[in-house]
Amino acid sequence: MVTYAEPQHYHVKVRVYNESIDFGKGVAELLQRIEATGSLSAAYKAMGMSASKAWKILRRAEADLGFALVSSTAGGKSGGSSVLTPEGRLLLERYTAFNAEVQLAAAQAFAKYFK
User: Distance from CA of residue 7 to its chain's centroid?
Assistant: First the structure.
């Protein structure tokens, strides 16, 4: 009989896309922070992300999905602002619920097979 140490951990990544794997945890967190702060700048800074990376991941996801996730107005005296588009808000809600359900199913399957 072969004995071995049972795995103690697992990791499941959830991403949604059409052609290019561009919408996952990082973009979802960025959108959540934009929603909370009304600012793309505040969102990416809180994540320790550069402005160029934030714009890059947003644009890639938008290009793949075929719709805008965020609407931004340029700064001025009072500064700019960013808000999720209705489509962006709906995608974030659906992704968050889907991810939670997948994580729960993964935890149950892991417990079944490894604990």
Answer: 27
- Residue 15's CB: how many other CB atoms inside 10 A? 16
Q: Please provide the average confidence, as pLDDT, over all residues in the chain.
A: 93
Where would I find the beta strands (DSSP E) of the chain? 70-73, 81-84
**Stated pTM of the model:** 0.88
Contact predicate 19/64, CB 8 Å: yes
- Residue type for position 76: G
- H or E stretch at 96: helix 86-114
What's the token pair of residue 55? 């714009």
Give me the long-range contacts of 23-28 (CB less than 8 A, separation at least 24): 23/61, 23/64, 23/65, 23/91, 23/95, 25/99, 26/57, 27/57, 27/58, 27/61, 27/69, 28/92, 28/95, 28/96, 28/99
